[in-house]
Amino acid sequence: MRVTRETLLRIAKETAQERAYNDSDIAAVYLTGSLLNMEPILGGAADIDLIFVQKSETLKPREFIKLTPDFHLDVSRRAKSEFKSPRELRGDPWMGYELYDPILLYEREKFFDFVQASLRAGFDFEQPPLILQRCRALLAHGRGIWFDISEAQEATPAAMRKYLKSLFHVINAVAELSGPPIYDRRLLLEFPARAEAVQQPQLTERVFTLCGAADVSPQTMSGWLTDWRAAFLAACGQPNVDVRVHAARLNYYEKAIKAMLGGATPYAALWALIQTWTASVEVLPEDSLRLWQNAMHALGFGGEGFAQRVEGLDLLMDDVEALLEDFAKNNGVDFEPVSGL
Prior knowledge:
Helices cover about 50% and strands about 10% of the residues. It contains 14 helices and 5 strands.
């Protein structure tokens, strides 16, 4: 079966209509994520990101539904009450872009046009004050997470997870200066262009270095895939596992990692590899850590290396804060420091 963007869009619409027909609590369904772009398939795999807007406040968990080994539905849910203040959502670095230009697939009650019109009102969404607000929110979140590991001396799975989460927000604090946030699988693949867009190409090397790209070869990374895969599958279904570690998403990550390793920017594969591997081993028995620990050591996170990376992340946040301050000055916007939050 040949799967195209049009095929996935058709499946998205049919799913929205079928679910809404069988569930009167669904007020609307809209499409977001990579399928909004013309090239949603990476390495031959993709997901369909659907947001179900529900009338009730009690929401079901995020849901992954396998369509084929290479394609799945990623269903998230939001309460209708979350949309009561669309003007406030303009400053939200996640929901703001999610609502700015999605594809509406189903609407039981007419409210989406009003929400979107309020969000876009006066063309303010893409103006410097709101751009800065969203970027500052991301940087503040990254800084807050960083404080939790600022004195950590060892790259445990829990500490690495927080390190990566902090770095993820800092990367997007730069990315949102020129567009929407970048999500996990494509984070390092798309970041170089975003750094270039704000005349900060040197940030690309720093971000890749903080992920360990300077310490390993693509061949070494390829050699880890068997162990990564085993950990991922062992963690699927375990209590408290990161929701993204799901059997329906195995090919979604594995094929993307292999495609990036064989592409022009092989180190872009690092993010999906180490993030999902870390999330997997965090819920596995301690005797399952050895192979992951060996990989983290090779990436420069072993021994004193982790503390040095945490310090490097601190310096990156300082420089991103200076970048945001310059952006504010150049656009006549008041700036409040993020450091110390």
